[in-house]
Design a protein that fits this description.
The structure is a homodimer of 203-residue chains.
Chain A: H1 6-26, H2 33-39, H3 44-50, H4 54-71, H5 83-99, H6 107-112, H7 120-146, H8 156-177, H9 180-195
Helix pairs in contact in A: 1-4, 4-7, 5-8, 5-9, 7-8, 8-9
The first copy, chain A, binds a DNA duplex (30 and 30 nucleotides) through residues 1, 4-5, 7-8, 11, 32-34, 42-50, 53-54.
DNA sequence: CTGTATTTGTACTCATAAGTACAAGTGAGG
DNA sequence: CCTCACTTGTACTTATGAGTACAAATACAG
């Protein structure tokens, strides 16, 4: 009895993906259920059958992002094993943004900026995502440090947070200016700073 | 005939300020004219008498921010004449954020993240604000460089953009995590990086 | 081939968003 | 003291947002 209820699962996924895309494009608030329903070629029936509310859908969208990052299904790799990987991590995000002609920001940042005190659950979902990303970045710095390739001063978590903050700011500015140059140069500045912690191992 | 039509100007300002505060708190999209009207203790009549539409109001709010920065009426100083000033520029923004218990981000970033392709005018208003800020920051780096206190490599505009991107990202993360620590450490990292361009003048 | 679980479609509801229409009030200059 | 520009109040209007109700279709289990 393996493949049961597949039809519905596909519908659910179609709604989820469409919603994620619209949220990324224009934010949560600006996206109505009706718009998601039309873009996903479904109906009210399905929408509220598979999701209990719009807020519930947002939660599931974020959950899916989290899972994707954990499972390596995200459009960029969060597994950093080298400085080259880290550079890719920065630049790929801007490349993705360019693929939308700089009209979008980071999907998480976009949603994050909309949260108010009434969206506590959403805020926590986002916190979790950023926590996960931070840990993945910090893991790299920890390893480098263990190998004696980072100065004693370097604090892995702090550096990881710095990476996230910079790329978020860079992408936001990129979207506002509709121009990738400042985003790219901010990323390069950040990378230069990070590398300044790097030292030649003694042996 | 100096003081004529003051009553109306006060009403207009009250609406403008209330709107700015609500936009900062919860974003533009989440703020309805009715909410602004109620919070400013006015009425529909006044609202549409003094502003042609909600979009027009947003534009005027941003215009007012721009003027305030130019006139030095902003809640933080954008006139940077020393590294100390620059540090203050970074940290004051986070202090302001703390005064709202980390429930808000940067007023410009908050609005900026909401813009879509239908808000071209608003996007341009924001671009102008950031351009102004960038120029003020860049002016400092230009002066330092002229005095031989920055390495030849240092590109003032690029450094200014880096400042803006970092503080924007830091404040966004601060809001999402509802916690100032990462924002503060990101700001310190950024400052450390900027200072790394600083050199002792030869004479 | 029939009953039950799942999936889908359509019509309705109720509140809010954004704006209009227009009447009435206010107040300074002549 | 009257008039006209400015200011304010209240009642519509029309569209959209978010969700409910419920019937019909479909699909597999036995």
């Amino acid at each position: 009895m393996q493949r049961k209820f597949i039809r519905g699962e596909e519908t659910r996924l179609r709604i989820l993906r469409t919603a994620a895309d619209l949220f990324h494009k224009q934010g949560v608030r600006a996206t109505s259920p009706d718009e998601i329903i039309e873009a996903s070629r479904t109906g009210k029936g399905q929408f509220y059958h598979y999701f209990k509310s719009k807020a519930g859908l947002v939660h599931e969208v974020l959950q899916e992002y989290l899972d994707a990052i954990q499972a390596g299904r995200a459009p960029l790799s969060y597994e950093i094993a080298s400085w080259k990987d880290l550079e890719r991590w920065f630049l790929t995000q801007i490349e993705l943004q360019k693929s939308y002609q700089m009209t979008r920001g980071c999907p998480f940042g976009t949603i994050g900026n909309e949260v108010t005190e009434n969206d506590e659950l959403i805020r926590q979902d986002l916190s979790l995502i950023f926590e996960l990303v931070k840990n993945k970045l910090a893991a790299f710095f920890v390893k480098e440090k263990a190998k004696g390739r980072l100065t004693r001063r370097a604090n892995p978590e702090e550096l990881a947070d710095f990476c996230i903050a910079t790329i978020q700011g860079a992408m936001l500015m990129g979207k506002i200016k509709r121009n990738s140059m400042t985003a790219e140069s901010a990323a390069h500045q950040a990378l230069a700073h990070l590398k300044s912690y790097s030292v030649k191992p003694n042996r």
